[in-house]
Amino acid sequence: MASKNDKSKNGVISHGLVAENRRSRYDYEIGETMEAGLVLTGTEVKSLRLGKAQITESYASPERGELWLINAHIPEYLQANRFNHEERRPRKLLVSRKQLAHLDQEVSRAGNTIVPLKLFFNDQGRAKVLIGIGKGKKNYDKRETERNRDWNRDKSRIMKEGGRG
């Protein structure tokens, strides 16, 4: 049975989850999601395979007719020489023109942003980003989310115990 992160003996991720932005579903109400490719250098791919990337503070932005992933942190590859990559450089996301036009239209609406949800390698070994169109939540919406999550946790615990409250 395959695990969540399929790592080989030497700790390298061949396919599976590299980084997840778990806070995004708390801070944003995610509407639709789509998968986008990433334009990376060789040292970035090697660093991603070690599983050390962070996308918690990043976002995507349509600029100059292209989609860019901004502020994603991919640490330097330690075994690389002087041709190593910059850790927080903007990275181009690969989407179709139709998808880009749709995303640009959604971002132009008030309060919407493009949030990266997951960074992973697909079955072919290519780096992909799952992005979603998010609308920022207010504080009372966040409290309601917490309340619902706690209630669902308590409800499942009560059902597991057989209803003996």
UniProtKB/TrEMBL annotation:
It comes from Devosia epidermidihirudinis. Required for rescue of stalled ribosomes mediated by trans-translation. Binds to transfer-messenger RNA (tmRNA), required for stable association of tmRNA with ribosomes. tmRNA and SmpB together mimic tRNA shape, replacing the anticodon stem-loop with SmpB. tmRNA is encoded by the ssrA gene; the 2 termini fold to resemble tRNA(Ala) and it encodes a 'tag peptide', a short internal open reading frame. During trans-translation Ala-aminoacylated tmRNA acts like a tRNA, entering the A-site of stalled ribosomes, displacing the stalled mRNA. Belongs to the SmpB family. This is SsrA-binding protein. It comes from the Bacteria. InterPro entries: SmpB, SsrA-bd_prot, SsrA-bd_prot_CS. Transmembrane segments: none annotated. One of its GO terms (molecular function) is RNA binding. Gene3D superfamilies: 2.40.280.10. Keywords: Cytoplasm, RNA-binding.
